[in-house]
Amino acid sequence: MSGEELSEFEKQRLANIAERDALLKKLTQDAQSSGLFPPKMPKASTGDKTKPKKKPAPKVKKEEDTPLPRRISSRLRGIAAESEVAKRKAEEQYVAVQEAERAKRARKSDAFSLNEMLVSGQKLSGDSLIGVDVVTKGVAMPYQRTFGDEDIEKTTDKDLKALREEMRGLSLWQAWEPNRIKLTPERIYSMTFHPSETKPLIFAGDKMGHLGVLDASQEKPVSAIKHEDDDDEDDDDPDPVFTTLKPHTRTISCMTIHPSKPTHLYTASYDSSIREMDLEKTTSTEQYAPESTSEDVPISGVDMAADDPNCLYWTTLAGEFGRHDMRTPRKGSVTTWELSEKKIGGFSLYPTHPHYFATASLDRTMRLWDLRKLSHKVPVPVGEHVSRLSVSHAAFNSAGQIATSSYDDTLKIYDFGAKGLASWKPGHSLPDNEMKPDTVVRHNCQTGRWVTILRPQWQLNPQSHIQRFCIGNMNRFVDIYSSSGDQLAQLDGEGITAVPAVAVFHRSKNWVAGGTASGKICLWM
């Protein structure tokens, strides 16, 4: 074959390659303009002369006969899906995820045993959570103190000074530092003491339905005390013994133990149920919940009359007030009233006359009610007081006084006992001027979204004539006030690293506990 023939052949081959490249470029441009991307094509080689491949000249095809690139998802192509099938599939997946999340948070109406509730820890003694002896024996600068020893020293009232000195004598539990007493996995929302005076037994409920139980009469092992200053002996310094259970699926908002039934703990939850835990058998049974498990009515508070251990009273975030006698079948025996269009954050019964009760609401009101004259159609309160912002809680004491906390940064004290509350006849009402608080105390209540709302809690059976209540302080203290608004103490201690927002008094002993957003507790005795 002559050089001239080879030269003509080479020209033809290069012409074919150029024609093919032009066609591919046109196809690529057309695909890009329509939002599509063709698959990668091998690059043409123009310098491989050692091994020429004899291929037929590419046949020019019409544009409509060009094969489409491989299928690529709409998401990768960067264009919105318009397929009805894709939309329906996405909606089904979203609904499935929502249902799974709802099922996780739905209440469980079954009775639970210890093994079914136990999350961590161990039983405190024997085969029960409480020992036999319990049953038989019955706005400031951060961290800046606003009440101290100098305030006590300049007190002129002898009784008040004596009580302030008594409260000053309370000290933080020394056995373990507060940062080692993690009673619940999540933020503590509610707490209570067992009524026993023989040992400080504390119950704490958290955001996810966990219940922590701590016996604070336990002592640190002797081996741990010997080595507490030795950094190499960490294994000989065990944490305190406590038990963590999970009787609810959502926040435990409130709890109570009736003094005449010391072996039974009642817990109310945002999962719409009130459960009764037998502390001896370590079982939990549902005492109240809506008839349908799909009905979501979070319970914000629970209380019991001092002279009736069989009747439960509660409020809800939907503004309802309810009552149920546990000796009767649930169906048909539950009575409810709609007292507010907005949520009721807290309530309490008047201990000595439980037909009176007080509610605190998001609608900025504190209302006093008489159960004897409470209409279901149009319930009318005995009286109401409106604050500048929402009222978080209303707590009654045995003297007929109500303490409230509000987002207007005040603690208000209403003395209805002095106005003859115990002798009022059914239908008695109070004008607005008689519903005004008798005492207003400035107190920072701006907890934000990460700290549990501050609520006052009275000591129900104080061992003196001076009534007192405790409340958390945003500067990492617990404040104690008298019913006249005088500050009695500001409790603190080493190792408190968070706000003890949930503060509670033992009903008769000078024991105070505070719970934090990290699930840890502080205890003063």
Structural class: alpha+beta
Model regions low in confidence, pLDDT < 50 over at least 5 residues: 44-50, 60-64, 132-140
Helix proportion: 10-25%
Q: Shape, please?
A: elongated
Distance between the termini: 112 Å
On the 0 to 100 scale, the average pLDDT is 85
Taken as a percent bin, the fraction of beta residues is 25-35%
Determine the CATH topology of the largest domain.
Answer: Methylamine Dehydrogenase, Chain H
Number of helices: 8
Which CATH first-tier class of the largest domain would you pick?
Mainly Beta
Topology, number of strands = 28
Number of domains: 2
Classified in CATH, the superfamily of the largest domain is: YVTN repeat-like/Quinoprotein amine dehydrogenase
What is the second-level CATH architecture of the largest domain? 7 Propeller
The protein's oligomeric status is single chain
Give the neighbour order of strands across the main sheet.
1-5-4-3-2
* Major sheet description: 5 strands, antiparallel
Q: Please give the radius of gyration in angstroms.
A: 35 Å
Pfam family, one: WD40
WD repeats: 356-372
Protein name: DNA damage-binding protein CMR1
Family: Belongs to the WD repeat DDB2/WDR76 family.
Give a verbal description of the structure:
The protein is 17% helix and 27% strand. With 525 residues, it is of the alpha+beta class. The chain has 2 domains: 3-77, no CATH class; 104-271 and 294-524, Methylamine Dehydrogenase, Chain H. GO terms for molecular function: DNA binding.
Task: Give a brief outline of the structure.
With 525 residues, the chain is an alpha+beta fold. It has two domains: 3-77, no CATH class; 104-271 and 294-524, Methylamine Dehydrogenase, Chain H.
